[in-house]
Amino acid sequence: MSKKKNALVNRELSWLSFNERVLQEAEDASVPLIERLRFLGIFSNNRDEFFRVRVATVKRLSRFKKKLDILQGYQPTDLLNKIQKVIIQQQNRFERIYTQVKKELANNRIFLIDEKQITQKQGEYVRSYFKDVVRPHLFPIILDNAKSFPYLKDKSIYLVIKMYKEKTGGRARFALVEVPTRVVSRFVILPQEKDQKFVMLLDDVIRYNLDAIFSIFEFDQIEAYIIKITRDAELDLDDDVSKSYLEKISKSLKNRKKGSPVRLTYDAAISTDIMDMLISKMKFRKQDNLIPGGRYHNFKDFINFPDLGASNLRYRKNEPLQHPDLINQASIFPVIKAKDVLLFFPYHSYNYILDLLREASIDPKVESIKITMYRMAKESIIVNSLINAIKNGKSVTVVVELQARFDEEANINWANQLQEEGATVIFGVPGLKVHSKLFVISRREKTKLVNYVHTGTGNFNEETAKIYSDISLLTTDTRISIEVMKLFNFYANNYKTGTYRNLLVAPWSMRNRFHQLINQEIQNAKNGKPAYIYAKLNSVVDEEIIEKLYLASRAGVKIKMIVRGICSLVPGVKRMSENIEVISIVDKFLEHARVFVFCNDGNEKYYISSADWMSRNLDHRSEAAIPIYDPGLQSDLMNFLSIQFKDNAKARLIDSKQSNTYVKDNRLVKSRSQIEFYRYLQRKNP
Questions:
Q1: 195 near 103, Cβ under 8 Å?
Q2: Of 297, 348, 435, 592, which is the active-site residue?
Q3: Residue 357: exposure state from Cβ atoms within 10 A (0-12, 13-18, ≥19)
Q4: Does 3.30.470.10 match the CATH number of domain 333-492?
Q5: Residue ranges of the chain with per-residue pLDDT less than 70
Q6: Is 137 a known active-site residue?
Q7: What is the Cα–Cα distance from 617 to 631, expressed in whole angstroms?
Q8: Where are the domains of the chain?
Q9: For the chain, how far is it from start to end, CA to CA, in angstroms?
Q10: Measured between alpha carbons, how far is 167 from 177 in angstroms, rounded to an integer?
Q11: Which of 468, 478, 591, 649 makes the best surface tag, with the fewest CB within 10 Å?
């Protein structure tokens, strides 16, 4: 085992450990039952993306003949084998949890039933539903007649079907049917009987009606098993200089749909002859990821499992809080001009962001709006506000990141719509992803132009703002607004990079400034002064930053971190990281905010950011970490971190063994940080 492997956890294996924490939520008996089903859906959706992106990348690397030293101590083939083992272990645990949750749902009079469990009356309903709703969307393919194996779409599930005559024997025939979950709900709610509720999956509705689909063949035995393919989702951009960036992305999106298979998942009960046929016709190899599973796949659909049964089977919805400075204000602009405002989502209402942009779109004093666009809501109120601003004579500039993974098509559509309305649309920056979360509203007040700035940790997406924990700063502080305007000038004219004294800006100064801030703590610790670093991130992977943190730990700097996802850093190792503590919180809301606090000899420095400590954020993206200057807001941030550090309900310890043990302490009362922080903000309201 290499030194690197001792000092660093491989990012892929750390990611699998994060997804294990999601699986723990599905297993946790204190989590409401339907939410446990939804966590199974989140786990499944996460795993799909992992294969489409990370496993696909490792598979690409495995094609190189020479040894590679870029996977934290692993060679690509060895890593693929390790991933396969972990995935199968997790899948077995997943199946056990699903079986248990089904039993507990039945105890609550909610029954997930299949085609062999329905009554005659239910069968009549299913036959009718199939005929009216499902059958028009089914297009079976007889595999015997197909010249080549049909193309299987990523994210879709298929029933592979075997038909034969049990008594007379003869050659079996095979067919394939796509389960049309894109147009028909995966969950079919059957008529209620007394207080009993019944749900049937669309897959089983089709199974129940296979005889009707294939009646012309006169077979007396029909078997059907679910299979699912996962494809490489990386975008390969060609270097044809005659094509625009938009054309290259559009072409690459079409090619993505035909990406190389990186995984085949299948029902473990599938017959040997069907499996042999699939492997042969689909040209899979032994080293490919062939993952046996249960009867059902595409569990991501369970994220949208219907709300059934008593209210205690779901999380109680907390009413979004009003911000004490914004309650009953006719206009938001005077408030922001008077003082900085910090909003914590989803605890605070996201309507403040929507209202600010809506007000800007009609305010006669507003001259222009500039905004970055990464992931927007499907029916974006924000985009509609921008369009309304254009119609009201405002100048609108939108920086659209076309390479926002899996949102590329949506962003192309938004860009086209905005261009048609008259917006100035900038398609990102060549070689950089624009990941910063910024907008500037320029407002003429008397003879002066005042820039109202938003900087934050989360996307401008009113849907995800309901479930993602993020932070937004609203300010007119010129130390910040001048430098944010420099960033927008850079987006418009890529040669004008600008200089930044207050913001930490990637890819130019952020890495070096973080190094300087850590170095300052190291020097203070060596001089016997107080020295600490508190950080909350999604991921910690960058090896230079990790080495700096190890140096800080050895110098005596106290480092406490909350890392939701990947953590390649190994905390708590003597003479390397014994002064570093790391926890991870997985709960009702997805922890998405990035916060940094440096002791700085008692004159603490606070930042919020869109950037993680990953090479891609520091070197290959346009990112910004924004200083928080207001002492009251600094206090709110410190309380936010302190409450999370005290979590002993949903916090897991991150260690070298990736064991995900829950934080245990001597307190008799459980402290669940997401609930405690809601109460903290609630107490601040008048």
A1: no
A2: 435
A3: buried
A4: no
A5: 1-5, 65-70, 72, 145-146, 168-169, 233-260, 285-289, 404-407
A6: no
A7: 28
A8: 3-313, 333-492, 504-684
A9: 59
A10: 26
A11: 478
